Amino acid sequence: MADRPHPFEIAAGLISPQPDPFADRYWSDPAAFARECISWPDGTVLADFQGEILTRLVKHRRLAVRGPHGLGKTATEAIAVLWFALTRDAAGTDWKCPTTAGVWRQLEKFAWPEIHRWAGRLNWRQIGRDPFTRHELGVLTLRLRHGEAFALASDDPAAIEGAHATQLLYVLDEAKAIPAATYDATEGAFAGAGDDTESQAFALVTSTPGEPSGRFYAISRREPGLEDWSAYHVKLDQAVEAGRISRSWAEQRRVQWGSTSAVFQNRVLGEFASSAEDTIIPLAWVEAATERWPTAHPDCGWNEGEHSGCRSAPAGKVVVGVDVGRGGDRSVLALRQGDSIDELRRSSSADLMHTVGRVRGVLDAYGGQAVIDVIGIGAGVVDRLRENAKLRPRIHPFNASAGTSVRDHSGELRFVNLRAAAWWRLRELLDPTGDREIALPPDDSLIGDLSAPRWRVTSAGKIQVESKTEIRKRLGRSTDDGDAVVMAFWGQGARRPQFRIASSARPTRVGARRRYSLPRVASVGPWPTDPTRDAIGRRIQ
Which residues of the chain have pLDDT under 50? Predict the structure, then answer.
């Protein structure tokens, strides 16, 4: 194909720009570009809501889109980037397309791979040029003759503000986590763009909603001063009708999480919602921890709620939190190293010896200790494991109903029982004002479990966490995954309080059953690291 005139030649008036049929046809019609310039896989087409998003982008210039998880928002962004880059480059005008996201990993693992995927489906004959070369389409860049699209960190407003071109498209992915300063940085481009100038600027901002706060929320509400933004909410029914989301998946999440829960409202309905004030761990804190997991485990995968394997074994000793299934519940093993839950291992087997074997296999392979729910049938698992003299010091019964004198980080709050203390401990670890970087698997079941339990203060001034029986009655399920993770973080290796031990933990016979009585302990300070103590506060010899 013949070379087009250089933009400097056009700007200098030496050569008149040549009209381009492709640019003329699709300059202001990204929806038509998507339908006619992309070879869609069999059985798929541009969804109506995707066409509406692309049309609104051109019409309103600033567009904020929210909707359910799994909607295909990133695919729509990728199509918009390709439309903008190809039409502006074909017209011979200078252009830029900065892309950013709430976390860098979103750009590296999702947004730009999606651009590559849709670039591979372009109909080059319709576009009128050769396919992108490897020098043009890089890992995180698309460099053409007259401009480029590129990735930028969202915590660097100066870099965003430094983008200058006659044609600009900003793409902000997972925008709920992007700071307001980054939004403000884009306004410099809009200052010189408009119908009365030769420049154009666009902003496409998308996200699954979260807490009702932040700039993305303010834009979606059309708060004063933000009226020049257009907000579009893709509803669950639209996504189901387009085949992007399964109705059965949505119904199962309703059963799992509850229709009024924040996680259901955010992820399934695409609505802003905050965890209830009496929820012990806010949903936003849990989601922040799940976003750290891929960085902590770059060689691991997590697909459809299941661990899909790692290329390397755990590098050190583990702490295993074990929630023993009862009454049809699953047994769950949560494997922790340091501040990260590496894996959740689930089993529906009712055979206690099966659970015993799984726990022993982990401890034999990696070393470490196990913290095991000892109430009910869990006592049998503890007894059998402790029959082994070498394992005995590494097996720690966790009696959720046992009393405790442990206090919270401030030293002001006390707890009704060990269950309340352990759940509150994880809350403190996940608190974003703290200095810990807890990483949790991006698992829907775990997210729902950790954001479900409620708490209250009793008349005695102690914190009480909703019991498993109460949760089952309210939600119709048990928080097995969450309880296993809570026990894993209660074990040795997490920062624990220093204890004074009033008595030792020992089994006592009650009728025909064996029950474990945990020591009554007292806190003598906040939560420092104390590697000399085991899971229930006893000094390690």
Answer: 1-5, 8-16, 304-305, 308, 493-541
**Backbone φ/ψ region at 461: left (φ over 0), alpha (ψ -120 to 50), beta:** left
Please return the burial class of 469, using the count of CB atoms within 10 Å of its CB with bins 0-12, 13-18 and 19+.
Answer: exposed
Q: Look at strands 141-143 and 147-151 and give their pairing.
A: antiparallel
- Going by the DSSP 8-state scheme, the letter that residue 393 receives in this structure is G
pLDDT of residue 350: 73
Closest by Cα among 483, 496, 519, 502 to 371: 483
The type of residue at 488 is A
Phi, psi (rounded to 5 degrees) for 278:
-95, 10
Q: At 475, list the tokens.
A: 């939600």
H or E segment to which residue 87 belongs: helix 73-90
Residue whose C-alpha is closest to residue 98's, from 129, 77, 116, 72: 77
- The dihedral through the CA atoms of 136, 142, 146, 147 has a sign that is negative
d(CA 420, CA 463): 7
Count CA within 13 A, CB hemisphere, residue 170: 31
For 264-284, how does the pLDDT look when each residue is reduced to its tens digit (9 = 90+)? Answer: 999 999 999 877 778 899 988
> Can you give the pLDDT at residue 314?
67
Q: How far apart are CA 495 and CA 290, in angstroms?
A: 20
Partners of 207 in the β-ladder: 66
Angstrom distance (rounded) from CA 338 to CA 317: 9
For the chain, how far is it from start to end, CA to CA, in angstroms? 79
Cβ proximity of 80 and 169 under 8 Å: yes
How far is CA 5 from its chain centroid?
Answer: 46
In degrees and rounded to multiples of 5, residue 464 shows phi and psi of: -125, 130
Contact in structure between 158 and 185 (CB atoms under 8 Å): yes
Q: How far apart are CA 320 and CA 335, in angstroms?
A: 5
DSSP codes joined into one string, 27-42: TT-HHHHHHHSB-PPT
Residue 144, classified by CB atoms within 10 Å of its CB into exposed (0-12), middle (13-18) or buried (19+), is middle
| pTM, to two decimals | 0.70
Residue with tokens 């020992």: 506
CB 198 within 8 A of CB 166: yes
Which helix (H) or strand (E) segment holds residue 48: the answer is: helix 48-60
Sequence-distant (6+) residues with CB within 8 A of 174 are: 101, 102, 103, 106, 206, 207, 208
**β strands within 453-534, DSSP E:** 455-457, 462-465, 499-501, 506-510, 513-517, 521-523
Q: Which residue has the tokens 């919270």?
A: 408
Structure tokens at 333: 């093993």
Angle at the Cα of 300 from the Cα atoms of 153 and 372, rounded to 5 degrees? 115
Q: Residue ranges of the alpha helices (H) in 110-246?
A: 112-119, 124-127, 157-161, 180-191, 215-220, 236-241
User: 40-92 pLDDT, tens per residue?
Assistant: 988 789 999 999 999 999 999 999 999 999 899 999 999 999 999 999 999 99
How much is the pLDDT for 213?
87
